[in-house]
Design brief:
two-stranded antiparallel ribbon, mainly alpha
Length: about 325
């Protein structure tokens, strides 16, 4: 796949300083090219996720062993509904930097692949306790959706009824309300659901659902880049759950007002059917395929992006966090 052209007005200095630091193991020219691709990923992730995905893949081919590069690839895969691929990438990031910050996105990917029980299992991992308050709420939104997927409607309501979840304000607070209203509807409590949503204006509900056009801003790429998957062959197949956990993503999308992409369809080996959306996590078509492994020592990796089966439109994505350690990577060429 040839690399998409880089806009002339996108420069390396647009990249967050901490992310630029992670590219120091590359040659200067390669670091600049990779960094510019990452800037474009951040700019396009909300407005043109498919093109953002192409730029992320171009960065992976040049610097597949850098965690922030793999992170960007994982988040872009998630935004385009390639859930199996996103899981592989984010599991790789987790191995590389030890961070579980993307646990909510990973759990949502499990929903997108039709595996709500695995989403719940991820939420019960000890690492979930290390998440910050916002990420815990995002994870609760995903778990609520997973409970609904399993027909456990009252449990879905209960997950979003704790004080810690309900005290949220701003857009996240509205998304919690939307997700809880969806769960209430599923439990046959329509009046409560309507009363809950009546507290918000149409504009607030639309913004939380990701339906409001906003000025495009550069993402903090420290939050959305991912690293190389040199030893990720063991993860191939999003169908299996790795010890280090599987992936999920956060979006503001549709029926949940929260983060989960509601899955329909079982997953075939790596390819999982995409899910219907919940307004918190982004997701659509699932793609399968082998792990993106960085093949040679020169850092040029064969992106094993799975199939591009598009589907559900799951909410708006969450900021991905950038992990720490970046592995060394030699210069690669854009295809």
């Amino acid at each position: 796949m040839p690399a998409p052209p880089l806009p002339d007005d996108v420069v390396f200095s647009d990249l967050d300083r901490s992310v630029r630091a992670r590219l120091r193991s590359l040659t200067k020219d390669n670091a600049e090219r990779v960094g510019r691709h990452l800037v474009v990923v951040g700019l396009l992730l909300d407005t043109d996720p498919e093109l953002a995905y192409e730029h992320a893949q171009a960065a992976v081919r040049r610097a597949g062993r850098i965690d922030v590069v793999r992170e960007a690839a994982g988040l872009a895969a998630y935004r385009t509904g390639r859930f199996a691929e996103a899981l592989r990438e984010l599991r790789t990031v987790r191995r590389l930097n030890g961070s579980s910050e993307h646990l909510p996105i990973m759990a949502d990917c499990e929903r997108g692949l039709g595996r709500p029980e695995r989403a719940i299992a991820l939420a019960n991992e000890p690492e979930a306790e290390t998440l910050d308050a916002t990420a815990r709420v995002e994870l609760a939104i995903v778990v609520s959706g997973a409970r609904r997927d399993l027909g456990q409607t009252e449990a879905a309501v209960a997950v979003l009824s704790s004080p810690a979840v309900q005290q949220q304000s701003g857009v996240l607070g509205v998304r919690v309300a939307q997700a809880r209203a969806t769960a209430l509807e599923a439990a046959g409590r329509s009046e409560e659901a309507a009363s809950l949503l009546a507290q918000f204006s149409a504009a607030e509900l639309a913004e939380a659902a990701g339906e409001v056009d906003e000025e495009v801003v550069v993402f903090d790429l420290e939050d959305e880049d991912s690293a190389d998957l040199d030893d990720a062959a063991a993860d191939a197949g999003a169908g299996e759950i790795a010890d280090d956990g599987e992936a999920q993503s956060l979006d503001h999308g549709a029926d949940d007002g929260g983060t989960g992409a509601s899955a329909t369809g079982a997953e075939g080996e790596d390819d999982g059917p995409s899910a219907a959306a919940d307004p918190g996590i982004e997701g659509a078509s699932a793609t399968g395929g082998a792990d993106d492994g960085v093949g040679a020592d020169d850092g040029v990796s064969d992106d094993g992006a799975g199939a591009d089966d598009g589907a559900g439109d799951d909410g708006a994505g969450a900021d991905g966090g950038v992990g720490a350690a970046a592995a060394r990577d030699d210069e690669g060429e854009d295809a």
